[in-house]
Amino acid sequence: MKYFGGCDVGSTYTKCVILDEKGTMVSDVTIRSKINAEKSSAEALRMACEKLPEVKTPEKLAYLIGTGYGRNKVPSADENISEISCHAMGVHVTDPTVKAIIDIGGQDVKGIAIDTDGTVKNFAMNDKCAAGTGRFYEAMANAFELSLPEFSQLSLTAKNVIPITAQCTVFAESEVITLVGEGKPMDEIAAGIQMAVAKRCFVMAKKAGATDRVTLTGGCAKNAGLKKAIEQVLKLKVVELKTDPQLMGALGAAEYARQKGLEKE
Questions:
Q1: Whether the Cβ atoms of residue 244 and residue 16 lie closer than 8 Å to each other
Q2: Bridge partners for 55 per DSSP
């Protein structure tokens, strides 16, 4: 049995997925990214390979593909592919019925349309501002003195929404701290944050060709409050993937590795 790897080196987290010849995920790892992308990918690969007695080291993988912002730093990778293509392929092999993605990464937001074979049909990206990204949510959670999982649930209890008007992460954080200091309901402030991010996703979803349903990828896909806000703002059903949405880039890279590795035989 041969094994194929995908390593997604993101700005916040580094993910690694290993597939067998049949495309079954046999190992996965998610770690916080270090300043050095090469060290991040090396550690994630080592941990994923050590879970498999048949592999043990990355050098034993039949084919390895790097993706993400640090894709050029993945040691022993056979090649690298953009995270946009890998997210599309990852979603395609997880749920072929989904044709539109909103990917909320640590530093950018992407809208991706998937073609029938899992390749990218169209995409749009907002990488000029951190507002609405994973970094933004970390700043907001810190302002509330909550963990990210706690913050993602907070808005679900809100009966009203307090709008957040600032478009910049720094100013939005300052606005939130002021509202909290004024004694405004924290769940209603959180609901305003979620709605603001959902509105930022609107253009991305439309450019991705989303008509009735869309899925979320990246760590922010686990944010229950954001999912609810996107469904309200975009009037689209958000499809929850059976596989961890944070792994989609690494899974897509591993699937490309599997296809290319088997082609070589």
A1: no
A2: none
CB atoms within 10 A of CB 242: 7
- Summarize pLDDT for 46-83 with one digit per residue, the tens: 999 999 998 989 999 999 999 999 999 999 899 999 99
The structure tokens listed for 6 are: 């995908």
Distance CA 169, CA 140 (A): 9
Closest alpha carbon to 244 in 264, 209, 212, 220: 220
CB count in 10 Å sphere of residue 259: 15
What is the value of pTM for the model shown?
Answer: 0.90
Sign of CA dihedral 143, 147, 153, 154: negative
Question: How confident is the model over 184-233, as pLDDT tens digits?
Answer: 999 999 999 899 888 888 878 887 788 889 999 988 888 999 999 999 98
Strands 13-20 and 79-80: unpaired
Q: Which domains does the chain have, with CATH numbers?
A: 3-88+246-263 (3.30.420.40), 99-240 (3.30.420.40)
Helix or strand or coil: residue 104? strand
Nearest in space to 239 (alpha carbons), one of 225, 218, 221: 221
